Amino acid sequence: MTDSTYIEARREERFLQLQRLLNLYLGKHKETARRLLNFTVPRVVSIAPNIRVVEDNVSSLSLMEILKQYASISPDNPIARYYERLIAIQAKDQQPTPQHLREILGEIQSSIVPNTLLREWAMQSFYTATDLWQFRKWFTLQLGLANLSEFAFYLSRLNPEMMYIHRDSGLMNISYFRFNLNEDIGKFPNLDLIRFVSKFFSRTGELMSNLPVPFRLTSNLQNFVTESGILGPLTATMISTASCLVHPNFKVRSIILVIMRDEIISWYKRVKWNEKVALVSTLKLTSSELANSQQTFGNSGGDSHTDESSAAAAAAELQSIEEQKRKNKLVALLSKQSAQMPEINNEELVSLAKKAVNSIMSRLQSKSLSLSLSFHNN
Amino acid sequence: MWRCSRIMHHQRDLNSNVMTTLEGIVDQLMNLREDWNEEILRQLRLALAKCYHSAFETRDNVADACFSMPTFQFLRKLIVTFVSDTETESSEATSVQRRSQITVQDLDWVQMKPNFVKDFSFKGSRKLRDLIVKLKKWIKILEAKKNLSPKSWLLEEKSHYLSNFSNQIGDIALFGEFLLPKVFPAVVSISRFMPRVDIVNKQYNSARRFYVRGHNGKEYPYLGKDFLDISLSN
Fold first, then answer.
1. Pairwise CB contact (< 8 Å): B175 & A43
2. Statement: residue B129 has pLDDT above 90
3. CB-count exposure of residue B161 (10 Å: 0-12, 13-18, 19+)
4. In 10 A of CB B3, how many CB atoms?
5. CB B154 within 8 A of CB B164
6. Taking the CA atoms of chain B, what radius of gyration do you get in angstroms?
7. Is the pLDDT confidence value at B133 over 80?
8. Is the ipTM, as predicted for this complex, more than 0.95?
9. If we measure between CA atoms, which residue out of B179, B187, B184, B178 comes closest to residue A20?
């Protein structure tokens, strides 16, 4: 329903394009080629601003669908249970402690969604042990890739409905993954235009890393992949991918710079658009408030009889009329200019893009070093 | 933008056959859009996801949490778009307005309308929990309605052009073939569109799955999706 739909589509497609480019390097590096590591990237083509044609696999289904179809559990049930418990705790004037939260989690896991759900689904879906083993192995490798990219590229959080598992091969693709740029615009408020405008300078175009966990490895996934899977193939996948992307010959840095440049340009346009919309709506709000106050002034002017009060009322009325005229002019000007988007300053663009890429590369390097150290120690 | 349109016009002059075929295919694929009840269902699901998001942010005081202005404005917009009886007079009515007019005329919706408006016009308190309960209730109602409609249909009913399309009309590569660099013989072109179109339910929206046979004989399934506004759910 809004203009932002196709912008969000472009954001997702940018990350898919990055994955396709990185696949070339994963195929060239020895450790990743050994494990046949490759991002699963579905072909996505936009044929209209609001319709996309996506390559599909008939046997693919998301984690959420497994919950709904195999276990017949509505995803709203655990959420409702969580809030019921929270209300019960808060009714006693307490805030939930970590102990409370652990109890709630344990209760949900024992009564609604057991730990072993994914494993049981897999055992039921595959007839022979070989099929199950093959599926689990591929799934572990793909999970490692997805987790590393979520952490290293500062992506939006992986929800269960985003993960699509292909039952015929064990491949897995994540849909709707996007870069997590800081878009905190600040509150909208008040009539003072200067203060209003200055609040917008505090937002940045940097990659946000405020997620509570680096990547998704919930107890269901852990149970399915098993501990030896986590210590073995999963960790090895993440180390080898990180070391591949950090390899200086591949010049992965310059590829990410290009993608981030586009991302930051679109972010800037988005923020400017939101600013304009906010400004116009605030001005409209204030001009309507002024119109109301003008009316009350007019009424009170009619009712009062003394000279002083009527003179003061008339002066205030004149001032409010001028204010309103000024604001109406601004609104008209802004709506005329709304078709023209300001371009981001080149230096700001370059510095933001470089900052983003530096943070990504530092995460990849730290990941490859720290993981390999712990791997050797174990 | 004007550069893009100039390039496209130039291309149309150079390769008129391919371009007109492509235009025809794209026009016909627009028939794969969702129905009105699927669209409302999608908006409601997005609203529910957004509510869960804000509920988590206000989890310090669950009982008294209220929903924010943007959510309230979204609900108002929903009611105005799908429930208002006013006809748009402008000749350039957008596709949303046209579809909302189709919605307005549908008999089932006309019966459901008063309850919908009553449930979603919040005059007094704006408790988040009430809104979540109401959204869940309406999602159930609309899902039950959707389950009654057919799960698949024939391509001929909606588009003659696509069902009669063949290699001889134009040499069009499969969707997305050029996203990766490939050598010429490896590019698969469309041989025909298979007659059956299924309706497939994904988490937030329902998509139309159609099958394309390539010139190599293999059948490729594709999904035509209405793109959803994810910014609401994040």
1. yes
2. no
3. middle
4. 7
5. no
6. 22
7. yes
8. no
9. B179
pLDDT for A29 equals 93
Q: What is the pLDDT of residue A37?
A: 95
Q: Is B127 helix (H, G, I), strand (E, B) or coil?
A: strand
B6: tokens are 């100039």
Six-digit token pair at A215? 């990547």
Handedness of CA B15, B17, B18, B22 (dihedral sign): positive
At position B94, the amino acid (one-letter code) is T
CA neighbor of A19 nearest in space, from A52, A45, A36, A41: A41
A317 within 8 A of A298, measured Cβ to Cβ: yes
Rounded CA-CA distance A174/A160 in Å is: 10
pLDDT tens digits, A208-254? 777 788 888 999 999 999 999 999 999 999 999 999 999 888 889 99
CA nearest neighbour of A79 among B74, B55, B173? B55
Stretches in chain A below the pLDDT threshold 50 = 1-2, 185-202, 301-306
Which residues sit opposite B189 in a β-bridge? Answer: B173
Helix (H) or strand (E) holding B190: strand B190-201
Residues B117 and B79 sit within 8 Å (Cβ to Cβ) = yes
Segment A67-109, tens digit of pLDDT: 988 888 888 899 999 999 988 888 888 888 899 899 999 999 9
CA distance A172 to A19: 13
For residues A294 and A324, the answer to whether their CB atoms sit within 8 Å is yes
Does A56 sit within 8 Å of B176, measured CB to CB?
A: no
Contacts B63 to A, Cβ<8 Å? 87, 90-91
* Residues in chain A within 8 Å Cβ distance of B96: 1
Would you mind telling me the total number of residues written for chain B in this entry?
Answer: 234
B25-36: average pLDDT: 81
| Residues in B touching A52 (Cβ below 8 Å) | 224-225, 227
Hey, what are B74's tokens? 């979204």
Give the strand order in the sheet containing A163-166.
Answer: A60-62, A163-166, A172-174
Whether the CB-CB separation of A20 and A38 falls below 8 Å is answered with no
Q: What is the pLDDT of residue B89?
A: 38
Instruction: Check: CB of residue A169 under 8 Å from CB of residue A180.
Output: no
Among the listed residues A66, A64, A77, A105, the one whose alpha carbon sits nearest the alpha carbon of residue A219: A105
- Strand ordering across the sheet containing B219-226: A44-48, A51-55, B219-226, B206-214, B190-201, B152-154
Q: Is the pTM of this model over 0.90?
A: no
Rounded CA Rg of chain A: 28
Strands B190-201 and A163-166 turn out to be unpaired
Taking each helix axis as running N to C, give the angle between helix B69-83 and helix B95-105, from 0 to 180 degrees, rounded to the nearest 10.
60
Of A4, A6, A51, which is closest to B225 when you measure between CB atoms?
Answer: A51
